Each structure stands twice: as C-alpha cells, then as structure tokens.
C-alpha cells in the first residue's frame, strides 16, 4: 500500500507489486465471505427447522429502514467507484468530495441501523435470553432475531471499519498521494467497500424480504 | 566443484542488524520464522507439561494429586495449547516462513509487514489464551462443545476469543503464502518446478484461509453465549447444539490437514535428499496434497456419527474420509518408491522419516477404522480415538517437525547439531511414543472413555505403561531441546549444503544473507534432479 515510485525489494516492478496486492485483497475478501457464510449456514438450518416462526419474525422486521439502507449502501458503492474514476482522471478535489459523500452515506447507514436496533430493543426484542417480546413466542422466533443481530451487527462492524479506511483514504487523497497511474490503496479500499455492500445485498432479502 | 563464496558480500540474516529492536521490528521472513520458532517451542513445552501432569494423575485409578476440575482444565489447556499454539503454526509459520520465499527464489514474502503482524497477532492470541488459563481456565475440552461450553462454570470466553485471534494470525500467514506462490516465483520457475514443500504449504494455506473464519465464528458464538447468553445453540430457545458441532468440525477437521499436509511436505524434501534420488513421482506428491485439502472439507461429519445425523449422511462422510486415506497412501508409496535403489544415508532427519512412515500409516489405518460407522459407535469418545489422533498428530506431525528441525537446522543457524545425540533422542521419542499410545488403543477398545478423571482398577497396568512412555517421550524431547540449544553456540560450522541436496534453499550460504541469495539460483536444474550432474550454483557437500 505504497505510492512510492520504486517497488519493494522482492518485486521486479511496481505493476507486479500492485497486482500482488490486489490478489492478496481478493484472497482476504474470500476469507471474509466465509466468516459470514458460517452465520448464513446457521440461518439456513434454523429457517428450515422453524419456517413459520421465521416468517412471522421477518414480517416484524423494519422493512422501510432496511430498504432505505439498501439504497444508501448501493449509492455509496457508486460514489466509491466514481471516486476511483475521478482519481484516474486526475481530479483531486472531486475524488475527495466523492469519498466524503461515501463516508456520509456509510455513517447514515450506521445511524439508521442504530435507530432500527433501538426500536427493536424498546419492544423487548433483544438477542438470546434477554428476548422479551410477547407478540412473537420466544421459541424459534428468538433464533431469527439473534441471527438478525449477529448478522447485521457483524456487517455493521464491517461498515464501521470501512468508514475508518475511507477517512484515511480521503485524507491521503487530499494530501495528493494518489496519481492517475498509482492509487493502489484507493482501489483496495474500494474493493473492501464493495464487499461490504455485497454482503448487505444478501442480508436484505434474507432478513427483510423473504416472508 | 567450486565451493560457495566463503566471504559473502553481505552479512547473514542473523547478523544483518543487532539488538532486540532490530528483531522485534524486522520484516525479514527468516527472522520472523525464528521468532515463531521460539514462541511455538515455548508453547510445546507448556502443552507438554500439561500432558505430563495428566499422565501422572492417571498413574492411579482413583483420586490423585490434582482434583477433577483441575484435571478437566489441564486436558482442555493441553488440547488448546498443542492444537492452536503449537501444531497449527509449527511447520507453516516456522519452516514455511523461512523456506517458501527461498524455495520460490524471492527475497521475501509478498507482504512482509503482514507477516510481522501475524506474529504479533499470534502473541496477542496466545496472551489472551494464557490469561484465560490463569484467570479461570476452561474445562470444556479444546472442542468447546455446546451446550456444555455455554454453561461451564469456568471462564470459557477469553480462551475462545484467544482461539479466534490465533485464527486471525493463521489466515494472515496463509494469505501471504498463497499470494507469494502465485506472484513471486522466480522467472523461469514453473509450478511443476517448485519444491513439493511449497505445494504442501500452498494446499495448507487454502484450508487456513477458507476454514479458519468459520472456526473463528463458531468460537465467538460460544464466547458470546457464555458471556452474554446469546443462546444460539440453546435448545430452550429452539437452538440445536449439533449445529455447533457441524460448524466447529467444518474447520477443525480440515485443521487436521493443516497439521499433516506441511508435515508431508517436509518428508517430501527429506526423502530425496537422503536417498540421493529424484521423487518417484513429482505429480503424485503435488496433486495428492491438493486432493487431501479438497476432500478434507467434505469429511467433517465423521465426528458426528453418534451425535444424531442420518445414516445416509454418515455413510457419505465415512466414504469421503476414506478418500483421504487413498491420497495419503499415494504419498507413502511414493516416498517408499523413492527410497528404492537410492543411496540412503542415515541421519537424524531420515530416522524421523522412518518413524513418521510407521506411525503415520498406523494412525491412518486406525483412521479408516474409526471412519467406519459401525466400528466408530464402539470406539467413539474412548481412548482408541485419543490414540488414533495422537498417532497422526504426534506420530505424524511432530516427527516430521523434528525431522525438519534437524534437516534445516544447519541452514537456519549455520551450525551442525550433534548427530549421535540426534539419533539417540529420535529413537527415544519413537520408543516413548509407542509405549504411550499403543496401550491407549487397547484401553479404548476395552472401553475406557476419554477425558475421565478416574478409571476401574482393571485398566491400571496399561495406564502405568502409558505414563512411563509419556515420561520417556518427554525426556527425548527435552534432550533434543538441550543439545540443539548447546549446538547453537558450540556446533561445528555448517557448510552451505551439508547434506549434498539439490534443493534451492541449499544453493545459498548457511545462514543465508538477508535477501536470501547472493546469486539467484538457476531453476532449470530442479530441486530433485539427482540424475543430472550437479549445476554450477550448487555448493559442494564438504564442510
């Protein structure tokens, strides 16, 4: 993750070093997917065991916030891609602005998520043994909500981590670290941000839409 | 033959910088390997000490010098330390780190700083785990099975989180090896020209990157359950504890191959060097490793034969497990075939190879036995299973690890180890190991369950034999540690290529310079090409 002009000692060229870093990022993203896959496997097993309870619980999820958040996150992916495009075109201030919009959208996602959590918690929908929502019987439905908290919580952690990376990238972009030919860190950060987006694209139907 | 340049232009990696700081902040893969070497050795001594305490308690059938809860804590810690702090990182993080860049002709791994970070993450995970041990310990066994683990009176959470952090370190290491193998091979070095050890580490790394996140997740769920009552596996809320077993073994069975595949890679390097002969079949060794990595993902259900899975599933998992034996057999026969008409020299690494073959085949065959559903019902959770997996993990991995330690000791430290002591302690380890674990097969078959604090008097004699064997095994390892530490200062200076190997890593001085090679090696002369005249860049065997 350097913008220096000379490659590290183990590389023949800077291009080679960048290609290597990209491969490393892809392997990391693959590993990340497996982290979510474990929870999704639990989701599949429990949904299969409690279809009616899961349907009732999913009907109680906040579809409005879930849907708005989907748009927020997809838009942030677009602005991220545009930021890289702007860097390629050599537009420094546009890059910084687009990154700032991406950060704001990411924060908006987290805030909306927090509102959603607060709403659920005020109803007594808490994970695990703290579950105290009488409208839906604990048996089975609590598994949906525990998985809901685990999946969206893990995802929100990734969003928050991504925001920190984006802030760092925006500061570097403002300093002029990225050139049209060399902006590896920006690309890698973008890849990560798109993954976070992609995971949500799966969570949205699984937790909100399928009823 | 021209000997290696006696005065390299640059100092070797051990002298490239002085002071503690130059070690702690190094990004040199060789120095990081040495730091892992020290850390994993400490872990092994700790895990070994726990084992000695366990075996000492089992000298008597009734109550002993430690109480039942302490006993349960000790076998948990023995398992956790040996599996996560020693066995999994032992060969990849020590020898993989040291050798993979040299074997592909690179100056370092693809991401040197990530490599250093993986060491500190390992230390953090180890610290968390050790803190958990001192703070309260865990009595769940290293498998953390729900629902017991979520309700255990001991302090499960820090140890489980420690295991998660250690997994992070393993993922970082694996990622580095995968990318290095793809992108940093020296010009002219094809995939099929790489040493088999690199193939093994590559296959291992794939398992680490794919399976470790799932383990991380499942232990985090247990920790959350224990600390915050998440109840993900709690039947009272409709949860299913068997699901934990599925998630856990989805990682932890492939983890067995994380332990054995690098060992097989080590063996594949030792055999041609000491038989002075090309591999009987390069492709068989390279692809059977990948085959094990692949099939290894489809066998986890054989741990659940009595946990309530369908007979159909059990049959599939049983058959898939046997496929692993086919790939392993291909390897064993290839090694044996390589020996045929070779000019074999008996050094300590070679003695460890023979120990490995005997113990690994024995352990593997009993593995097929326990993969058979009808037999496993009888042996499940008895000492038979304990003996089986110790045959693979100690008989297989530890002997290969010790072989690797002796084989590459001259390269790593530039000193020779004392050969007589090496042979003596290898024999001691082998005898001690058999004395420890053969009786455990008999005990398990006679019905002694694993993890029990006490046992009926009729099992007394076999338990005493097993404990004596464990002491012998411990003695062998202690002697090894002592003479290796002494050899660091007093051993004879090692030549660049003391074994007369054709391997790439022997074409540079011992110890290697900071950037591995003074003159890059010529990959057109393969690492096993003993049928060709030696290439010019191979140093002579003489000291």
Topology, pairings included?
The complex is a heterodimer of chains A (about 210) and B (about 550).
Chain A: H1 14-49, H2 51-59, H3 63-88, H4 92-122, H5 138-175, H6 184-209
Chain B: H1 20-24, H2 29-57, H3 68-103, H4 112-135, H5 148-151, H6 156-183, H7 196-228, H8 241-275, H9 282-295, H10 311-339, H11 348-371, H12 373-379, H13 383-413, H14 419-445, H15 460-490
Summary keywords:
heterodimer, A: 211 residues, mainly alpha, Four Helix Bundle (Hemerythrin (Met), subunit A), 79% helix, elongated, B: 543 residues, Cytochrome C Oxidase, Chain A, 15 helices, 0% strand, globular
What is this entry, summarized?
The complex is a heterodimer of chains A (211) and B (543). Chain A has 211 residues and is mainly alpha-helical.
Explain this structure to me?
The complex is a heterodimer of chains A (211) and B (543). Chain A has 211 residues and is mainly α. Chain A has a single domain, classed as Four Helix Bundle (Hemerythrin (Met), subunit A) (Up-down Bundle). Chain A has six helices and no strands. Chain A has helices at residues 14-49, 51-59, 63-88, 92-122, 138-175, 184-209. In chain A, helix 1 runs antiparallel to helix 5 (138-175) and helix 5 (138-175) runs antiparallel to helix 6 (184-209). Chain A starts with 13 loop residues before the first helix and ends with a helix. Chain B is mainly alpha-helical. Among the domains of chain B are: 31-258, Cytochrome c oxidase-like, subunit I domain (Cytochrome C Oxidase, Chain A, Up-down Bundle), CATH 1.20.210.10; 497-543, no CATH class. The radius of gyration of chain B is 23 Å and the shape is globular. The A-B interface holds A 8-11, 16, 19-21, 23-24, 27-28, 30-32, 34-35, 37-39, 41-42, 45-46, 49-50, 53, 127-131, 138-140, 142-143, 146-147, 150 and B 101, 106-112, 114, 171, 175-176, 178-179, 182-184, 209-214, 216-218, 221, 225, 228-232, 234, 237-240, 243, 246-247, 250, 515.
């Amino acid at each position: 993750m350097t913008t220096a002009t000379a490659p590290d000692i183990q590389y023949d060229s800077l291009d080679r070093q960048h290609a290597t870093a990209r491969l490393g990022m892809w392997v990391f993203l693959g590993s990340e997917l497996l982290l979510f896959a474990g929870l999704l496997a639990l989701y599949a097993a429990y949904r299969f065991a409690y279809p009616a309870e899961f349907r009732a619980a999913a009907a109680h999820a906040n579809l409005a916030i879930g849907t708005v958040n989907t748009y927020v996150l997809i838009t942030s992916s677009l602005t991220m891609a545009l930021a890289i495009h702007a860097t390629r075109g050599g537009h420094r201030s546009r890059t910084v602005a687009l990154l700032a919009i991406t950060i704001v959208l990411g924060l908006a996602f987290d805030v909306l998520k927090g509102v959603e959590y607060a709403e659920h918690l005020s109803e007594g929908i808490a994970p695990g043994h703290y579950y105290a929502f009488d409208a839906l019987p604990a048996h089975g439905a609590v598994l949906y909500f525990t998985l809901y908290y685990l999946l969206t919580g893990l995802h929100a952690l990734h969003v928050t981590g991504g925001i920190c990376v984006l802030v760092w990238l925006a500061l570097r972009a403002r300093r002029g670290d990225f050139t049209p030919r060399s902006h590896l860190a920006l690309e890698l950060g973008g890849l990560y941000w798109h993954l976070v987006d992609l995971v949500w694209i799966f969570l949205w139907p699984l937790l909100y839409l399928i009823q | 033959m021209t000997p290696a340049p006696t005065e390299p232009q640059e100092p070797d990696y051990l002298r490239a910088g002085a002071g503690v700081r130059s070690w702690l902040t190094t990004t040199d893969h060789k120095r990081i390997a040495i730091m892992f070497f020290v850390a994993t050795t400490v872990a092994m001594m700790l895990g070994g000490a726990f084992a000695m305490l366990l075996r000492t308690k089992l000298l008597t059938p009734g109550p002993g010098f430690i109480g039942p809860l302490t006993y349960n804590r000790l076998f948990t810690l023995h398992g956790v330390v040996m599996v996560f702090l020693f066995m999994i990182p032992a060969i990849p993080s020590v020898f993989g780190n040291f050798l993979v860049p040299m074997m592909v002709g690179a100056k370092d791994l693809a991401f040197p700083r990530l490599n250093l970070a993986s060491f500190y993450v390992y230390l953090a995970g180890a610290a968390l785990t050790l803190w958990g041990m001192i703070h309260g310990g865990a009595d769940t066994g290293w498998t953390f099975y729900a629902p017991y683990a979520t309700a255990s009176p001991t302090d499960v959470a820090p140890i489980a989180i420690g295991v998660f952090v250690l997994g992070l370190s393993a993922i970082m290491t694996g990622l580095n090896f995968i990318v290095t193998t793809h992108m940093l091979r020296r010009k002219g070095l094809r995939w099929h020209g790489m040493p088999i050890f690199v193939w093994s580490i590559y296959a291992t790394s794939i398992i680490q990157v794919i399976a470790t996140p799932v383990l991380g997740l499942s232990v985090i769920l247990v920790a959350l359950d224990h600390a915050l009552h998440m109840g993900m596996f709690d039947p009272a809320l409709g949860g299913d504890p068997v699901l934990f077993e599925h998630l856990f073994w989805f990682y932890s069975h492939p983890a067995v191959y994380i332990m054995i595949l690098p060992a097989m890679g080590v063996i594949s390097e030792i055999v041609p060097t000491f038989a002075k002969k090309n591999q009987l079949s390069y492709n068989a060794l390279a692809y059977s490793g990948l085959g094990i990595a692949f099939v290894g993902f489809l066998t986890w259900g054989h741990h659940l034969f009595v946990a309530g899975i369908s007979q159909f599933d059990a049959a599939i998992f049983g058959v898939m497990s046997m496929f692993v034996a086919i790939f392993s057999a291909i390897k064993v026969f290839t090694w044996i075939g390589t020996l045929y008409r070779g000019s074999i020299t008996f050094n300590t690494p070679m003695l460890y190879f023979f120990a490995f073959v005997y113990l690994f085949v024995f352990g593997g065959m009993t593995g097929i036995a326990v993969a058979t559903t009808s037999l496993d019902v009888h042996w499940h959770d008895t000492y038979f299973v304990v003996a089986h997996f110790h045959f693979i993990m100690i008989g297989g991995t530890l002997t290969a690890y010790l072989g690797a330690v002796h084989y590459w000791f001259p390269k790593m430290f530039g000193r020779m180890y004392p050969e007589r002591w090496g042979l003596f302690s290898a024999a001691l380890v082998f005898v001690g190991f058999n004395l420890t674990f053969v009786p455990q097969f008999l005990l398990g078959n006679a019905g002694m369950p694993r993890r029990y604090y006490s046992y009926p008097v009729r099992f007394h004699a076999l338990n005493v034999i097993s404990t004596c064997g464990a002491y012998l095994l411990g003695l062998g390892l202690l002697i090894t540690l002592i003479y290796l530490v002494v050899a660091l200062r007093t051993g004879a200076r090692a030549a660049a290529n003391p074994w007369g190997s054709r391997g790439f890593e022997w074409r540079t001085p011992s110890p290697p310079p900071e950037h591995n090679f003074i003159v890059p090696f010529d990959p057109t002369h393969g690492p096993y090409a003993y049928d060709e005249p030696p290439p010019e860049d191979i140093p002579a065997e003489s000291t």
